[in-house]
Amino acid sequence: MPTFPFSAIVGQDEMRQALLIAAVDPAVGGVLVFGDRGTGKSTAIRALAALLPPMAAVIGCPYNCDPASPADLCPHCAAGGPRKSQKKPVPVVDLPLGATEDRVVGTLDLERALSAGVKAFEPGLLARANRGFLYIDEVNLLEDHLVDLLLDVAASGVNTVEREGLSLRHPARFVLVGSGNPEEGELRPQLLDRFGLACEVATPTDIATRIAVVRARDAYERNPDGFCAAHAKDDAAIRKRIEAARKRLPSVTVPDAALEQAARLCLALGTDGLRGELTLMRTARALAALDGATTVTDDHLRRIAPAALRHRLRRNPLDESGSTVRVERALAEVFA
Ligand SMILES: [Zn+2]
């Protein structure tokens, strides 16, 4: 069955915006998606990956090395001669909840160690996710040390393995997408803060949207190929928008006035450190690039602020309102 088209997703605007931003600038950090089950979180990620332009990857390389980027080659490709490549779809790797650290980072290939007596590395999920997406359903149920490790690798783009007599570094640039249900355990604030964006998804409550969701799902399941063909043009338009935004991104400017507003907003919310401002700046820049703009404006900041800040708020015992309400209140104050 072909992947559900991204352009056919009804509603979930905030999640779609966050994913598009991460596709334009993976450096904005991971995306957290909180909300009910069955709201199409995993569908949206697969849909986005499927519409991205296929990537050139070295044939036979377990890390999907990019032949055009010699600085990022794995030890295997770096040592080899001329490299042949082929186009591959952008990977979406699922990290199952029970995954061991070995399975995630990779481990000693025991079979080869025993049969041939060589210390070979068996790449893990981080290798497969290179240049794509790593998706964790119910990230709040994953052990803290694994989440920590994933965030470290996602931030550096390199997986460093030093274990069982192995010493190896390989490229691992991916967008970390974690979904979770806030009622089933919480992420530590220190981990929350390291995700770039956090969005909330909910089952739609208005009748018209519910009908549209059900109709789209039904049409897709009855005739997947026809449904995808009907949305191919819209998906292609989104692909072009992402490609154009990636090209434009380095030249998008962030005026001091925008940074001042970002600082005011973070001060009004009492976020810790400067990560809030940094994320606001980076994500607003990617959003401006997606819009075809050359400069970040207040409008970009306002549109991205809830997703960039809601997971960085300190608990305020005197204010029991939800984090989204608090961000919206601060926005109204700062942009009055
Ligand atoms: Zn390689």
From TrEMBL:
The superkingdom of the source organism is: Bacteria
**What InterPro entries does the entry give?**
AAA+_ATPase, CHLI-like, ChlI/MoxR_AAA_lid, Mg_chelatase_ATPase-isu, Mg_chelatse_chII-like_cat_dom, P-loop_NTPase
The catalytic activity, as recorded, is:
protoporphyrin IX + Mg(2+) + ATP + H2O = Mg-protoporphyrin IX + ADP + phosphate + 3 H(+)
Q: Which Pfam families would you find in this protein's record?
A: AAA_lid_2, Mg_chelatase
Under the GO molecular function aspect, what terms does this record hold?
magnesium chelatase activity
User: What Gene3D superfamilies does the database record attribute to this sequence?
Assistant: Magnesium chelatase subunit I, C-Terminal domain, P-loop containing nucleotide triphosphate hydrolases
Give the record's keywords alphabetically: ATP-binding, Bacteriochlorophyll biosynthesis, Chlorophyll biosynthesis, Ligase, Nucleotide-binding, Photosynthesis
Determine if Ligase is one of this entry's keywords.
Answer: yes
The catalytic activity of this protein is classed by the Enzyme Commission as 6.6.1.1
Q: In which pathway does it act?
A: Porphyrin-containing compound metabolism; bacteriochlorophyll biosynthesis
Top enzyme class of this protein? ligase
Q: Where is the AAA+ ATPase domain?
A: 27-248
Instruction: Write out the similarity annotation.
Output: Belongs to the Mg-chelatase subunits D/I family.
What does the UniProt function comment say about this protein? Answer: Involved in bacteriochlorophyll biosynthesis; introduces a magnesium ion into protoporphyrin IX to yield Mg-protoporphyrin IX.
Q: What is this protein called?
A: Mg-protoporphyrin IX chelatase
Organism encoding this protein: Methylobacterium komagatae
